[in-house]
Amino acid sequence: MSKARIFRIVLFTLVAGLLAGLPMAIGPAEAADAAWQAQYWNNRTLTGTPVRTQSEANIDYNWGQGSPAAGVNVDNFSARWTRVFNLPAGLYRFQATVDDGVRVWVDGTVVIDAWNDSATRTLTGEIVLPAGDHTIKMEYYEAGGDAVARLSWTYTPPQPGTYFNWKGEYFNNMTLSGSPVLVRDDARVEFDWGGGAPDGAVPADRFSVRWTRTVNFSPGRYKFMASADDGLRLWVNGALLIDRWFDQQAAVFTAEIDLSGNVPIQVEYFENTGGARVMVSWGYSGSASGINNWRGEYFNNTSLSGSPNLVRDDGAINFNWGTGAPAAGINADRFSVRWTRTVNFNAGRYRFTVKSDDGVRLWVNNVLLVDRWYDQQAVDVHAEIDLSGNVPVKVEYFENQGDAQISMGWLYVGGSNVINNWRGEYFNNANLSGNPSYVRDDANVNFNWGTGAPAPGINVDNFSVRWTRNLNFTSGRYRFTATSDDGVRVYVHDRLVINNWSDHAAQTVTGELDLAGGSVPIKVEYYDRSGIAQVVVSWTAVSAPPTTPPPPVSAGTAVVTVADYLNVRSGPGVSYNVLTQVYPGQIVTLTGYRNSATTWVEIITPGNVRGWSNASFLWSTTDFKKLTSVDVPPPTSGMTATVNAYFLNVRSGPATSHTRLTTLTQGMRVNLTGFRNADASWVQVKLDDDRTGWVSSRYLTSTITFSTLTLWTG
């Protein structure tokens, strides 16, 4: 066959592949070098003088348990192959099949790095190359047993609109909103712009970028590293691995994940002011393996927020770090840890013991057994529960400052002994602190001890009690009633329904709540300061089951954009109780519900608190108007007061400078919402037309001590 005919066939094949847009196997036909230059060493580290050097046509070997060449060991040897190829522009996927370790470089860039012992495995890596000469290098070592070394690659030509590397979308704002002002193919996410701009079309400050790509991973565990100044989020295979969406100095954060095959990766970044820097990379860290002990996630803050700075396998939760740090890269003070594990328990009752300095929370089978989330000296805390089979266990811990100590364990204490009534824990102090001095099964919370002691070994005065129980309710609205001398609090489904935590003579307070039905945890806390000791708690259904709202639409997430903090409330309005706060840059989950005016949406906070927040201070790609509209019952405190003045103005705020809404007359009874101003000189009331307003407390008569109401922060 003539050279001209051969050339026409090769050219036709290449052009056909380019037109088809299909991956093509690229061989040595266009190589700048005629063969691979191979070097062999009789060690695993490619050190010293090679014992053999030769030219080789391909890297395609299965030596089994034999030697690769005369003078080279059967085991404990290494090799390096290098060659220059002339390649067309496009995406190249390299594939190495080896037993044991391998590294592959293209023009000095690592595309495969698995330098560890293993059975025969296949690894892949991708790189985009411009047209021209490219140096490919492969290093390999054999430890023992079979020896395999193969290298090949496929080629995908460029297509219009194709991004072989990272698709970078650049925005002239910090929220990735609107259309990008620049879209380009970035070879890597590794930039240090300093005080400059990423491009002439992008400002130097207050911009954001979203990078996306799909990467093919060989099966295994991978460690991702990221650094940014300012905010950064990293998703891998749909999982949010790193969440640092706030202004910050550049620091390195890591996270690990098991991967296999084609995996989508998304990086989001924003720059506020000052220096701009962002970097994301990853490396193979070993075979995929579930953590068989405790999965420990360590955070450089006291709130378990953001992505962990360290994830490791802890054999036991039994640490006394003193004033030192728990691990390299973790603070000595102001850090937190979350440990999780599934344990198989034989059927029976177990006593869990936790000791910590500072705060700790313990969940067993999704039940919060220990909740001591505050600064404290190390003290033993006990709790019991009936268990059987595979049970999830979670421990959360934080260290503020000083000594750091945490231990947790459990003991089988006998056959199942489910408490069918109230579990009463009695304390010889008025603040439920330390270990209970007495624990018993109480049939009801209905006591009038007078001036006597509630139980053997318990004080006559200055004592407290915590009762807990799970009860089955049919769906509907319930009114809970508590009469106490002195303080009482009632929690239903972890919501504070009654809060009358103050010294007082016998008072009756009510609170209402909608329940969906099923098993509901109830907790009653009580203390007696002195004198008469009395506490009674009861409940009754007050309405038919509420209408079940339609299922929510697929909602997604939102970002908090308020400058300081955003209240999360029990309902869609400022008259509802504040449950917690979220802060600028935090990501919250949308439940799929909104109020009818779309001014409030229901969210789940990073701390797993479900509540309502003002939609004006949340940004999301989700159109809030497309969420499901639900009606939420108005808040009620169950507390009332009577007007004792001839006329009493109701104003829009807690001062005479606010607008007058209406006027009340002497003897009228009003509902208190449960809120007061700083000195309790004004309280919030609810009118018959469902409006809320403020009145001067000096003109009201009530059994409620106004200073015990919740301070208004809205």
Description:
With 714 residues, this protein is mostly beta strands. Helix content is 3%, strand content 56%. Strands 12, 13, 14, 15, 16, 17, 18 and 19 form an eight-stranded antiparallel sheet that branches. Strands 20, 21, 22, 23, 24, 25, 26 and 27 form an eight-stranded antiparallel sheet that branches. A six-stranded antiparallel sheet has the order 3-2-5-10-7-8, with no helix packed on it. The longest helix is centred in the first third of the chain and has 18 residues. It starts with a helix and ends with a strand.
Please describe the structure with a list of short key phrases separated by commas or semicolons.
714 residues; 53 strands; eight-stranded antiparallel β-sheet; mainly beta; single chain
Set down the secondary structure blueprint.
Elements: H1 3-20, E1 24-25, E2 36-41, E3 52-56, E4 60-64, E5 77-87, E6 90-99, E7 101-106, E8 109-114, E9 121-129, E10 132-142, E11 147-156, E12 166-171, E13 182-186, E14 190-194, E15 207-229, E16 231-236, E17 239-244, E18 252-271, E19 276-286, E20 294-299, E21 310-314, E22 318-322, E23 335-357, E24 359-364, E25 367-372, E26 379-399, E27 404-414, E28 422-427, E29 438-442, E30 446-450, E31 463-473, E32 476-485, E33 488-492, E34 495-500, E35 507-515, E36 518-528, E37 533-543, E38 557-560, E39 566-569, E40 578-582, E41 587-594, E42 600-604, E43 610-614, E44 618-619, E45 628-629, E46 639-643, E47 647-651, E48 660-665, E49 669-676, E50 682-686, E51 692-696, E52 700-701, E53 710-711
Parallel strand pairs: 41-45, 49-53
Antiparallel strand pairs: 1-11, 2-3, 2-5, 4-11, 5-10, 6-9, 6-11, 7-8, 7-10, 12-13, 12-15, 14-19, 15-18, 15-19, 16-17, 16-18, 20-21, 20-23, 22-27, 23-26, 23-27, 24-25, 24-26, 28-29, 28-31, 30-37, 31-36, 32-35, 32-37, 33-34, 33-36, 38-41, 38-44, 39-40, 41-42, 42-43, 46-49, 46-52, 47-48, 49-50, ...
